[in-house]
Amino acid sequence: MIKRLAMAALIAALGSQLSACHTTQQPVPHAKGYETYINPGDIFKHTQLTNIDGQPVVLARGKKLVILFATWCSDSQRTLNELKASALLTDPTLQIIAIGREEDADTLKAFRTSFGIDFQLVADPDRAIYQHYANKGIPRLIMLDEHNRVVNTLIGEQPGIIEQVRWR
């Protein structure tokens, strides 16, 4: 009796695993347990966003850099400082959009002023946007091409991450 129950459980578990493999894309693993839910070649899911001033953010036809970050995160602050010091900030063919994970518009407005940011900021107070792209880990950098297709994704925990931002 126990053998039959064990065999039935094994068959049920194996069957559910096999059927799930065909219906869902597996996230990209990371040593710290981070998962990325969007991969090169995928289309960016959010084509309509609203910035912290209540204005629509239209994804431009050129290259885009989307940064998922938090104001309190030292890695996010370092990445934004690297961005501000880079040539990316002055590239007229590049649109930069930073999405504050678990941040509200008022907090991001104060951060924009104190940190001297002059690119689009979008509030994501309940992770409604973030949850489509990752399970954890910030800052996240998503490079998009002119058709909003993902070129690459990076997790910006180490210094020098902005140097790795490239469109092939």
From TrEMBL:
Signal peptide span: 1-20
Organism superkingdom: Bacteria
Molecular function GO labels: oxidoreductase activity
CDD domains registered for this protein in UniProt: TlpA_like_family (cd02966)
Pfam families (alphabetical): Redoxin
UniProt domain Redoxin: residue ranges: 44-159
Keywords noted in UniProt: Signal
Protein name: Redoxin domain protein
Record organism: Pseudoalteromonas rubra
